[in-house]
Amino acid sequence: MTILTEGKDGPVILSPEQVEELGQALDALRARVEADLGERDRDYIYKIIKTQRGFEIAGRGLMYLGFLPPFWLAGVAALGVSKILDNMEIGHNVMHGQYDWMRERGINSREFDWDTVCPADQWKHSHNYMHHTYTNVHDMDRDIGYGILRIDEGQKWNPYYLGNPIYAFLLMVLFEWGVMVHDLEADNIIKGKRKWSDLKPLLKGQGKKAGKQVLKDYVVFPALTGPLFLHTLAGNAAANLVRNLWTFSIIFCGHFPAGVQTFTKEETEVETRGEWYVRQMLGSANIKGSKLFHIMSGNLSHQIEHHLFPDIPANRYPEMAAEVKALAEKYGLPYNTGRFSKQIGSVWAKIFLLAVPDRFVKRTPTPGVIVVRNRKATEVGV
């Protein structure tokens, strides 16, 4: 793995021995946390579930007074919080298998379904498998641009990308729908790399899940409020919009702010465990914030720790972060973190800058890291 762009003081060079030492230290951290999992973590996730349900009940109830603007706004806020908690701190984390060790019904990755239009099984394929296995690897990790955006210099510019800011805005507003169609690989259909016939089972699952969500949010619950049908429909739509804006922002802050690095398939071929860890650290970013901020982000404000330990309960990431940061400093690796305003600002700056041809934009060098790989020719397919 070689990151070619040199930083201000030249590239950091890690030997194979250093990389494996780092990997062993991170494995030891994982083992200590896994051994400590127990009642504390069980209580935490059930407390979050209870809170989420409380906000949903409050939001649904307030919609019966939706003809009064203060109550309508309060209902939207409560439903928005409920949907954010359901998607991020509960759904995302449970479907990663973070609580499978509890062996309890309704709180494991095989059974859980969330309050969004994307089928759980399709999300687990595109996210848990493709994204977390091939994090930031071009032509492998489809989260790089979501098949829509130019979000990295490694994506060759073409005139289509002049609309980059518009595509990003639409993806943000309709984020749950963008996540739903992600596994279809529509761009590969257009390029002829995938057949329409491949999509039939995916479309069937999406239709069933999306139909259920649309019926719930835009027919059943509005109908239950009788003459306030349109008020409730608008309130539910607004709550979904709040969730979409927040989720998009947190996810993009963790993956695409300034300093996050991407890789080629050749650079990541036949990775060792230590090299995989290094790639996760270079390809992720954190967001500073309060305890409440971390909860509302599903602890994806600790995206570095999440990419290192995706199946460890996310409530443990804040305490693991100090050790991960110390290891990064020990080995000279960047630990990308900053305020929300800084990270989201750099994301949107990239979206706008990458919309135009490279020759018109002056780039800021990314800190260089060179991982020396000790491979035999037969191991890399030469």
From TrEMBL:
<keyword id="KW-1133">Transmembrane helix</keyword>
<dbReference type="Pfam" id="PF00487">
    <property type="entry name" value="FA_desaturase"/>
</dbReference>
<feature type="transmembrane region" description="Helical">
    <location>
        <begin position="62"/>
        <end position="85"/>
    </location>
</feature>
<dbReference type="InterPro" id="IPR005804">
    <property type="entry name" value="FA_desaturase_dom"/>
</dbReference>
<keyword id="KW-0812">Transmembrane</keyword>
<feature type="domain" description="Fatty acid desaturase">
    <location>
        <begin position="71"/>
        <end position="337"/>
    </location>
</feature>
<keyword id="KW-0472">Membrane</keyword>
<protein>
    <submittedName>
        <fullName>Fatty acid desaturase</fullName>
    </submittedName>
</protein>
<dbReference type="InterPro" id="IPR012171">
    <property type="entry name" value="Fatty_acid_desaturase"/>
</dbReference>
